[in-house]
Amino acid sequence: MADPEKLFKVNVITPDGMTYSHRASIIEMRAIDGARSIMYNHLPILTPLAIGEVRVKRSQEMNQIIDHIAVNGGYLEFSNNTATIIADSAERARNIDVSRAKAAKERATKRLKVAKEKHDRRSLERAQIALRRAVNRISVYKSKK
């Protein structure tokens, strides 16, 4: 008899509340110091996340479901077979309004250009973050296909 599938709980929480909650066999994300993968019975960990995609693999079976989530930074905490991601914002790929994300990318690109011309470091940093967030949302949206 095969071992039962070993799944753990994954929750993504934003200021608006619970954005995502499922059981998973593995989650993959980008921490600020590199890529991370978490599986069942992983040692406890608390790590800051970079702007990027979180991939939640919901099954070890052949018909594996992978959920793609755009996360704009935040933290991942894993303990007692529960992964909790706390982020300022997070969106599942299927919920991303790609036209809105493209418009945000255009606005950020314009703000970046203006900040460079004015040598405004603070505005430049904000525009770079806004651009990374918009590009991330577009990339995660495309990954769902």
TrEMBL record:
Main location: membrane
InterPro entries: ATP_F1_dsu/esu_C_sf, ATP_synth_F1_dsu/esu, ATP_synth_F1_dsu/esu_N, ATP_synth_F1_esu_C, ATPsynth_dsu/esu_N
Superkingdom of this protein's organism: Bacteria
Recorded topology in the membrane: Peripheral membrane protein
Gene3D superfamilies with a match to the protein in the record: ATP synthase delta/epsilon subunit, C-terminal domain, F0F1 ATP synthase delta/epsilon subunit, N-terminal
Keywords, ordered alphabetically: ATP synthesis, Cell membrane, CF(1), Hydrogen ion transport, Ion transport, Membrane, Transport
Keyword presence, Lipoprotein: no
One term of GO molecular function: proton-transporting ATP synthase activity, rotational mechanism
Cell location: Cell membrane
Bilayer-crossing regions: none
Keyword check for Ion transport: yes
Cellular component GO terms held in the UniProt record: plasma membrane; proton-transporting ATP synthase complex
Pfam families: ATP-synt_DE, ATP-synt_DE_N
Function: Produces ATP from ADP in the presence of a proton gradient across the membrane.
Family affiliation: Belongs to the ATPase epsilon chain family.
Subunit structure: F-type ATPases have 2 components, CF(1) - the catalytic core - and CF(0) - the membrane proton channel. CF(1) has five subunits: alpha(3), beta(3), gamma(1), delta(1), epsilon(1). CF(0) has three main subunits: a, b and c.
HAMAP family named among the record's database cross-references: ATP_synth_epsil_bac
Protein name: ATP synthase epsilon chain
Species, as recorded: Lactobacillus acetotolerans
